[in-house]
């Protein structure tokens, strides 16, 4: 099988000799002699491998193949454009190929080929507005008519409109214009010089682009360290059918058409009819042979010859979800050599992006993708076939051969594609049924007519009613008996029939079909293996074959169970379990599968239904789930899994137990045990380490709902003091979710996070206290124990946190879509990088960094030109610019970045490069926003008081410049449909604009008393909200221009960002006071307390459509998601500063900490409690503190230029002095030197130290472990003498103890 594929796809003599070309030159015949051939010679002279049609081939080469190979592999393509180029078939095919390669590469994040159009005898305008009637040859005939461009065949291949679109797409790429006015006219005295100069210009740019591609290729594919890269290897990814399976893929009737289900399915797969869609769907009930037919087709010689890129079978099942589908797609890519490509696919959370990367991997290969047993369940929607079919639509070669998809399904809700082939039971006693039964039974077909067994065979056929699964099980049962029969072989048929009749209990309402007798065949198989024929005995430790078979009811459909775990369920050693599993496999009861040094047991779905049915009759399914739970506990119990560090499980058994334990305990009725597991800090720690937080969260929600709805927990119903357990479970789940961004796989760092997020509930909830005690017992040493509030509480209004890779600038944008996905972008402080982030509804975070193209220069060939835009940057020399602002359209994957040089740049997040630049502003772009559909972008700059709107796809300016402000424009926003723009300005006004006309809508909205820094618009465009330097938020009625209600006042610093709900009734604002506030517009009242926790100014906010969730971004590294509806604060009161903490210091004995903010506070290190009352007296913020060795005296300095000395015990001021005397005052009252720098006081290095916001341990082997990670801490100090650490985190004073 594999050899035949290698022979077909392996290199021939010629293919081994020619390497992939650097440059492909596409041209029409008239331009070969004067442009194409001179260009090819010049490029060859420069050391480039150039492909120029047949001149690059040798006798014996296959022309179409060589052309296709060159087109699919060339890094740079040059298109010499002329009327003949547009009219001819092959030139447009070449262009079509490169445009497709370019689009697919952009979509998948891979490097695209460079396309360089040479506008030789077809100008840019003519490419954009092609008029075929205009062009005539030397004889006066229309060129397009001569080339049969308008013929039905040509139009069917590529219509006039398609050709126009393709030329327009090419014209959007910056190319080389024929400034020399070169022509093919040989009578032109200076024509040869013009052509020579044009060729020089083209060759210079081609060489430059080729060198860029080569250097990138070296970096990306094979670097100096010798890293490997993916190499495509076609393969057949499908199991072989057992030998006893009877199928007729090539069977034909008298009329020559296929006359079996499998033959019709094969014909549909191989069909070349252009009207046939890209796939075929096999439908029918279970057990009718669909899976076997798919396997047989995968290994068929005709199919392998047709699909040279390989055949890839993926199996799903009724229990499958989107995650399993994605994993199966990744396995197909891995099987074909794409290990790195599969790894990138697994990083995606959306199926559409996985399919994009998969299309890019298979690209030009002609493949058959087979997906077996597909259902619209568990997040897989009814249109899944159409989505998957894009795989075939976008893959294939240039000989018009396409990949195909083949499906099987039992789900009537699925919308089918392609030819539908329905599988049904065979004719009861027809030839197919006879062959199936005889082949499975290991008998000659003629045996069916043997008088000695004819009657028995006939009755078995009638009972199986042509159902392939029943026929196969019956046949394998007979084979098993025949192989062990001591008498006449034919008598085995009668013996089997008697067993079958004895067990023929009807299971379906229709006794006329094979399903009614399938149970009888399965019972007969069990009777056979249990009868002692060929086995060592009827029972083994009281476990009959019937019992061990029905024990498999605990398996998931279409999923296997490790034999290592099965043997524990059967209570026998591995060798015995394998022996008896093989016996059951021989009679069609189970399948054994070997994968990665592990043996797995599987069952057909209908056989699984039988096992469930039998278990319900006997012990009950719950009994077996309890039994499996006992097996999972064996050894050192479930928590033994928690002792391994990292994501990888030690073996398949452990991995299976970890992934299945929620289902096993729930189905086994072990609710109390499952609850205890969820309340175990060690288990939750392991969940975080193994990346299973999302699944764990769903399981906790399910169990909590069950307990609340059914009262299934004794502790809840009897009031035994455990009423808090459900709440504690949910608290731990939220703590785990919030902890993920701040911890790796080390246990110490995870325990620090969990402990800190739940400790405030310990005094009132016994479950929480027990969790803390468990952490203290099992945390590895050393570890860091939070004493005070160091991290956000798990039951606060903060529900999610996204940690970005660096401390950003004030330029950050956040958003949230209807599904709950959070997205946004952040500009790095230096302006040299933009980070784009998304967090899916499943809480999977993806971060993309855009860097390396913040430079200004004139455009070069191969770059995308912004149409209808004239660059105002006249300097040709390259210079570096900085990003100043950005906006992200998640729907299209576009980021528009405003730059210091006045340009805007459209980035593709998938390709990580600039698609086009917009030129028009003369200086720094100050603000930018995009319409909801991603079609338009609006920007304001510091060069004027005007606003510009741009078309994202073309780069053209839309409408007139929006002018009317008398001060700098600080903020812009755009309606979802792009029809309206709202702006805020230094002139203290808010203005609304009509994009199409450029006119201001109504009068300016006036009321703020200082600069308007931020604006937003409601979804219905009826209201506008603005925030100002005057610390107020105001809402405006667009129609009347009147302010809605009073100003919303509460922030203590400038309002930097605002957002509004769809209906305009709820507003959210962020401020320089580091808080987020939510407002009810109708009442003018703040909703709940301010949302605090950010460590920097809040520069961006957004709101979900229903107004229940708010997302905010600050200058710090984290983006936060808040639950607006969460009730009042629970647990211990959050005692402390209400503003940001500016300074901290520790006492020399390590027992007390002092902090400065708007006031001064002293803290007890052991308890985390505040000592006495806040020390109040300074008129401005306190920016310097120091404390005496015994912690009784504090010195503080303030921005009010005063220094105060405090008596901590009495809470009074002992002395007031001046800042310039601070040193003298500290020496006088504290009697020690510079105690404000506890970190330096130790004067030595340690194996525990602070770095990048965390406390790190360096182990003896040189490795490092993060013991604690804080959210943007400042002034992190460690007192090694007393094992104390302190830092300021926003408004919190983080006090921690080192436990060694």
Structural features, described:
With 1300 residues, the chain is α+β, with helices and mostly antiparallel strands. 32% of the residues lie in helices and 23% in strands. The protein has 39 helices and 59 strands. The strands form 15 sheets. It has a six-stranded parallel β-sheet, with helices on both faces. The chain has a five-stranded parallel β-sheet with strand order 2-1-3-4-5, sandwiched between helices. Strands 39, 40, 41, 42 and 43 form a five-stranded antiparallel β-sheet that branches. Helix 32 (681-689) packs across helix 36. The radius of gyration is 37 Å and the shape is flat. The relative contact order is 0.04. Residues 1-18, 214-227, 506-511, 533-541, 712-720, 864-878 and 1232-1245 have low confidence and may be disordered.
